[in-house]
Write a structure and sequence with these properties.
Mean pLDDT: 78
Largest sheet: none
Number of strands: 0
Distance between the termini: 38 Å
């Protein structure tokens, strides 16, 4: 196709400005607009007298190559976005989840300790609650306050992502 455009320019056939534009698009491996594709087909058929099936085959191959390169570029971008987004958000949430479970385990000590005392001696259960040391030096209600705050934070995070999901659904339905 590039050679055909160059030949048309050398022969002085067609609109030189438009042919220069088409040549620039082809050399940059960019997709030609449909109107320019049709214009080029007509100019080649009228002035270069080549076989139409040969032209169609070359154009089809060019279009296929362009689409393959665009699909590859999109797949690379998508993979990069998925990796970056997954690692960033899932990592923070995972840490926050395990901290919440840890604090919750210690905050619910009064309920779980009675269950554990059925199976273990009373002096052993203290090792299942590492925040007991903090509770000894401060008030036990601090641990319960932190746990309650974290539970409200989870509610906030849940509503935030629910709103994002609803907005995304509205955008994709249009």
């Amino acid at each position: 196709m590039i050679n055909s455009v160059k030949q048309l320019l050398e022969l002085g056939k067609g609109d030189p400005g438009r042919l220069e534009y088409i040549l620039e698009m082809l050399t940059q491996s960019r997709m030609l607009p449909f109107s320019d594709q049709k214009y080029l087909e007509n100019m080649i058929a009228l002035n270069l007298r080549t076989n139409d099936s040969e032209i169609k085959q070359k154009e089809n191959q060019y279009t296929i190559d362009q689409l393959q390169s665009q699909v590859q570029t999109i797949n690379e971008r998508l993979a990069k976005l998925e990796r970056g987004g997954f690692e960033r958000y899932i990592g923070k949430k995972t840490v926050f989840f395990f901290v919440t479970v840890f604090v919750g385990w210690n905050a619910l000590q009064t309920y779980t300790a009675t269950f554990l005392n059925m199976f273990l001696p009373a002096d052993m259960t203290q090792y299942f609650y590492p925040l007991n040391l903090v509770a000894r030096y401060s008030d036990y209600s601090v641990i319960q306050f932190v746990f309650t705050s974290m539970m409200y934070a989870w509610l906030f995070i849940g509503f935030k992502y629910l709103i994002r999901f609803i907005r995304y659904r509205k955008i994709t339905e249009r």
